[in-house]
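We close this part of the discussion by returning to an individual protein. Part of our work consisted of pairing the sequence of a single chain with a tokenised description of its backbone. What the numbers capture is local backbone geometry rather than side-chain detail. The amino acid sequence and the backbone structure tokens for this protein are reproduced below.
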Amino acid sequence: MLQHMAKIDDLATEIERQIRTGQLAPGDRLAPVRQLADDRGLAPNTVAAVYKTLAARGLVQGEGRRGTFVTSRPALRMPVDEPVPDHLVDMARGNPDPTLFPDLAAALKAVPSKPLLYGSEQVLPTLAAAFRSGFDADRVDSTELAVVAGALDGIERVLGAHLRPGDKVGVEDPGYSSVTELVIAMGLRPTPVAVDAQGPTPAGMKTAIEEGIAAVIVTPRAQNPTGCAVDQERASELRQLLQRHPEVLAIEDDHAGPISGADYHSIIPELVDRNSDATKDRRWAVVRSVAKSLGPDLRVSALAGDATTIARVRGRQALGTGWVSHILQHIVASMLTRSDHQATVAAAAATYAKRRNALQRRLAEHGIPTASSSGLNVWIPVDDEASVVSAMERRGYVIRSGASFRMDSPPGVRVTVAGHDHDVLVAAADAMADILTPRSPRRGA
């Protein structure tokens, strides 16, 4: 049964990816069930189940004898994480460790009891100052600043400020699936940018630029799912590429910030050479979230950018939601300005690094290389994602297939290390090694 379900999920993910990337356009007819079953060596009922799954997601629709067609505006999958049974170790969800968050109860006491009314300023001055302090430490110009409801909200607002439906957007491959799906939901076209241990590759960025991208979204550290981080040399190479193409809107999704365990190196030319004629008209933005360091339920992120971008974001925000709740802003400001905040963040970053290293060292002892250097996850290249995920579950561990994160890149699986101690991580690495490098049977056995 597990193998049957895995085959359905693999093929459904592959077809969904083809729809997301435009290989299958609205109105295209899918291969007949029996034809695709013969081509893939699958049972017809397996392919029929795949088409049923895609139809339930709103991606395709059946038209009787005419066949199955891609819908005119495909709905995107709404991922719902099923509860992980108590007997299994959850290493799939990508959550931070709540025991490493600062004290929320103390921050709640800082919220004023006097209610705010319409006409209040969008951004709390104490919060703006706290965010600017962090940006200043990394030489990010935060003269123009907006507060948005999470990193993805910031990315959506920046894209909406400059792009129109049909524009191409460079997205990391493998990369965060919600970013890719957001791009599609906005009527934009995702274009893969290859990623290695140092982030987007210069060749991948160059290819995407040549394909006519209007914007690119890069995660400078704690990249999801790979855990890669842009180093100084790679940042310089990417800046040089973008320097020659000021028409490309550059967005950095620094969602994990200081708890990522890696230094921040920007790919945005304007942040390094602010007086250059080639950068004075550049459109750019850096978004930083507190979700990983303070808690995902605090839907507060800072957005720094050029004057035009931030003005458009704040203007559109004023016409819609108006502002991010000042109650949340007070809570976050209180947490960020605590005297022990820097020590708390440093301790969390060190703990995540220790857990990452525990899993990676054990895998390396088994001859399984990994390249993750930051964040909460470790990416492990595999040949068959579905079979590895199923095999790990049989051994007691739930991990995430890489299929939803990929466009053109090779397969892999994502293992979240954030909430687990050394012994659990070592045992999980041993289980993974048993799957990927099975031992030869003993003689006479």
In short: The first helix runs from residue 2 to 20. The radius of gyration is 23 Å. The chain is about 40% helix and 15% strand. The longest strand covers residues 189-196.
